[in-house]
Amino acid sequence: MATVAPLTPQWVLDLHCPPPVKSKQSNIPDPIGYTSISTSKKQASTKTVRIPPTTEETDALKLKKAWEIALAPAKQLPMTAIMMYMSGNSLQIFSIMMVGMAFKNPILGLMATNQAFERFESEGNKNGLVVAKLAYVGMQVLALALGIWKVNGMGLLPTTRSDWLAWEMAREPLERAIPAF
Amino acid sequence: MRLPISLLCLTLSIIPNSRAIFADDAYEIDYHHQLLGIPQTHATFFHRPRPLDKPTLLYTLSDLGVIGAVNPATGEIVWRQLLAYDKVDRPGFFRPVEGEGSVVSAIDSRVDAWDASNGKANWGNTFAGTAKDLEVMEKAAGAKGLKDILVLFEEAGKSTLRKLEGATGNVAWEFKDESSDVPLQVSTDVKSVYLVALHGAWGGYNVKVTVLDPATGKKTTEYTLSTKSDVHSAEDVLLVGANSAAPIVAWTDKTLKTMKVHILGKSGEQSLPLKEVNGGISNVTIHAPHLIQSLPHFLVHSQSPTSNRADVYHIDLTTGSITLAYELPQLVGQGAISTSSQDANVYFTRFTEDEIIILSSISHGILGKWKVTLEDDHGALIQGIAEVVKKASDSYAARSAIVTNSGDWVLVRNGAEAWSRPEGLSGVVAAEWAEIPQFESLVKTLEEESHSNPLSAYIHRVTRHIDDLRYLPGWLEALPVRVLNSILPIEVGTQNTRVVTRDTFGFNKLVIVATQRGQVIALNAGNKGSLVWSMAAQAMSSGQKWSVQGIFVNNKQGQVEIYGTLGDRTILNATTGEIVGKHEEADFKPISAAVAVEDESGTWIMPFDLQGKSIYDVPSNLAPSDTIAVRGPDGDVRGIKFEIKGTTTEQILQWSFLPRSGQKITNVVARPAHDPVASIGKVLWDRNVLYKYLNPNAILVTAIDDVASSASFYLLDSVSGDVLYIATHEGIDTNQPIPSALTENWFAYSIFADSLSTTAALPGSKGYQLVVSELFESEFPNDRGPFGAAENTSSINPSDIINAEPAIPHVVTQSFMIPEAISKMSVTQTGQGITTRQLLCVLPGVNGIFAIPRTLLDPRRPVGRDQTALEAEEGLFRYKPFIEVDPKYVLTHKREVIGVKDIITSPALLESTSLLFAFGIDIFGSRVSPSAAFDILGKGFNKLSLVATVVALWLGVIVLTPMARRKQINLQWMS
Known about the structure:
The structure holds two protein chains of two kinds.
Chain A: H1 10-16, H2 37-49, H3 55-87, H4 93-111, H5 113-118, H6 126-153, E1 172-173, E2 177-179
Helix pairs in contact in A: 3-4, 3-6, 4-6
Chain B: H1 4-14, E1 31-33, E2 39-47, E3 57-62, E4 66-70, E5 77-82, E6 93-97, E7 102-107, E8 110-115, E9 121-126, E10 130-136, E11 149-155, E12 158-164, E13 171-176, E14 182-188, E15 193-201, E16 204-212, E17 219-225, E18 237-240, E19 248-252, E20 258-263, E21 269-273, E22 283-287, E23 297-303, E24 307-315, E25 322-332, E26 336-342, E27 345-351, E28 355-360, E29 366-371, E30 381-390, E31 396-404, E32 409-413, E33 416-421, E34 428-434, H2 441-451, H3 454-468, H4 472-487, E35 510-515, E36 519-524, E37 530-536, E38 548-554, E39 559-564, E40 569-573, E41 579-582, E42 591-599, E43 602-609, E44 627-631, E45 637-645, E46 648-657, E47 664-670, E48 681-683, E49 689-691, E50 698-705, E51 710-717, E52 723-729, E53 740-743, E54 746-753, E55 767-776, E56 792-793, E57 810-818, E58 824-827, E59 838-843, E60 848-853, H5 869-874, E61 900-907, E62 914-920, E63 923-928, H6 943-974
Antiparallel strand pairs in B: 1-63, 2-3, 3-4, 4-5, 6-7, 7-8, 8-9, 10-11, 11-12, 12-13, 14-15, 15-16, 16-17, 18-19, 19-20, 20-21, 22-23, 23-24, 24-25, 26-27, 27-28, 28-29, 30-31, 31-32, 32-33, 34-35, 35-36, 36-37, 38-39, 39-40, 40-41, 42-43, 44-45, 45-46, 47-50, 48-49, 50-51, 51-52, 53-54, 54-55, ...
Helix pairs in contact in B: 2-3
Protein name (chain B): ER membrane protein complex subunit 1
Keywords (chain B): Endoplasmic reticulum, Glycoprotein, Membrane, Signal, Transmembrane, Transmembrane helix
Subcellular location (chain B): Endoplasmic reticulum membrane
């Protein structure tokens, strides 16, 4: 390939020397008459080593993956808890942002529960996936609880009597006296 | 999730640096009328405080018992001393010590000598009895030391004459007259001391003269002048001339036809004829010099209600004969005469309605005559004193201090007014706030428009707006001044003091005051307490004091109703001071209380007689449905109600409260009429709530026992008469003032407690104590007491159970030591009650007003330990038993406000601010922001720099906009 007549046009060179085949993601079939050497090699090797996994195996694998996703929020919990503890209970920009995130993430996660498990869904693992989903929801609720705990610590929850004081009325006396002193 | 209002409350309650008064506010927000009272002619004089220097000061002892020195050039007070106020009826005596830098006063039982230049006490002495006369003795020529003082006392109907040493005030000698003669006056000449007394029985007296030796006080001789038919009381003796070369005693016969004059030390008396005056002589006075070196001349002044005339007499010292020198012609008006002397010369100054004439006692030639031009409407002249100075051989100058019937003290220098002092403002007995009346026309027209049909309403509105355009030029004219005023720190343009309008902050309010002289005066609190109008509402004879039961202001009608204790009633227009209505004197019935009651038609005033009964028969349509709490005739407090019987009503006693036997009720206080509470609970550090016990009907009764030296404080419900709380203190000085105040859910009182030796406990502290009690519905947080969440309460039937006990509040009490006596307490008021309250205390010892913040007086402050961080968050800090008079909480700062009787407060439109007004002898007013002025820009706010910044930014934008636009366009073309 190195000895090519200098008059050979560029496109001829390109034709003789095609660019290396990129790993294919798409299922587009090769054009007619094109044979890829590497592909054929690879096919030959897999044909020899691996047998395609059975549906059960795929399902088990998917379920395993689904559990990983379900438990992912729990892994963040200790970290979040430490940060919340560190940021203190005063009303500052940092702690307010922390609290905002602590509420935003679990709520968004809860809303996207089905999307998160969509790709693992199949006919066979439906029941197992429900358990994983429940675990996922549970974890998100746990994260949300952490946020609420923080908000409570900051005194922003109307849990005490003083928060409702403004709606309490003074007792109206039925009789009035006019002092003349 | 805290709510704005409770958050605000909490924030306000814990602001630590809420100062009472800032340095840059002093003299700006407060005003003070430094007053003396109406000067008494016989105790007013010009005197040189430093004998070697020429300048003189004007000294006076006023009718309120205040002595003071006034700079005659400016009218400013140099010094003042309050000797007695509200204690003595006798006016007292005040004399200069000629040739020495001191002045001497005698009032009631005390005699004091004061440094004439600064008013510091040289010495003071108190004796038994009351002072009847005071004279300064002339010392013999060449004698060393200071001049001695002669004081005549009346002690249990007998006279005692004491000579006090001029340097120390110690008694040099004492002469007691054992006979029960009425002591009159004391007089001296060079050789002897004369004690003049009235001898005989009631209904006719002889004049008894006792001659004493000035050195030893031994009686040398005694003689009696027969005057039995003419002299019936001490007032009938016209004059006992003092200290002159020839002191005289004079009296007139009953018909005022002749006058008898006796020269002390000489025998016999001479009759001088009194010439007829138009309208008949009603009053005769004698004016004589008071200096020993003065010529022995005197002037007899005869007054009728319409005109006056005078005669000048000379005494021949060798023969003792009295000759008429010349006569002064009769002039219209009562007039007044004053004597002044310079060296041996004696000058008489004659005041007429519009002229001042000075004459020498020697001849009838007029030395000076000036037409008096007063700048303001001071009213007619009543009395005056003058100082005549000989400038050159034939030119004289006169300074006259004149009291006018509007109560002004005016200094006239050669006929021109130099200054005037509004002394009529002194001696205020009652005061009340009034809103500035405002035309409600706009509100009315708007109402009209809302009722008519849209088209005609629209046309009406357009025409009204066109009509309003005529105010536009004036408004535009005033605009630059308004803008400048709001930007610049100094005021531009002057305000018209007589025209008062409301302002946006509610600082402009009228204060209606009633003085003991029967005068009603309105001041504008927003304009440094300037006078708005003044009106003589009641004619008071001398010595009589107007006692006012209450001033009731009807802001809707713009009227002021004043009730006197004698039953007199005056209605005035609040804007102009015109008297709208007045009670006939025949209808007068003494009243013990007056109260504003409401019925369907509006508010009216119900006076009560001394028996605690309504003076009027109350018709059924006017009868108040509420219980009225009054002081009863037997020293009790009672609740009364009006029961409807057909068209009339019957007064029914609901309850009556008498303290423990031996105690008498001295004071009853109720919550102020305007006492809003923003939050019904107190938020604790753990965010639980302690509910306040808020009973609008609560009253605090103070009862003292003089014998057992105890004082009890009873908290009553004034609807049912139930006793809610009792506190008793033993070992109390009951002669000291025991003021109290009740507001919101707490009350405070001050006592002087002695240290009691008990076996049970350690002795308490001796001194003035301030006790603060706070009432809660329950001692437990989050508990609303026995009534729970009930919406209504009834004092008479607290619950469904028959004869149930009332809800008793949980009381937390703490006492504090204070270094000063408190004579009166009051509490600040604000519009919504969001701002914390301050306890305003009058400290008579330092002549000031002390505002104690509520946080300092919190009874829940931790005792014996430091506050925790959470408690600090709530605003509690460690209890310290001693409250210092912190200068930054003294609202009067450097001012000396004397004789304060009471303080009244009123809310401004700004929630942060409460107006206060203190009255008595002086008048003081200020604004307080107990939780700092959170809704108004302070003086430190630089409006000018703010405006400059905005303008600079605006200019910057204008300059940069085209540049930026060009750059952006270029950028688009380039790419």
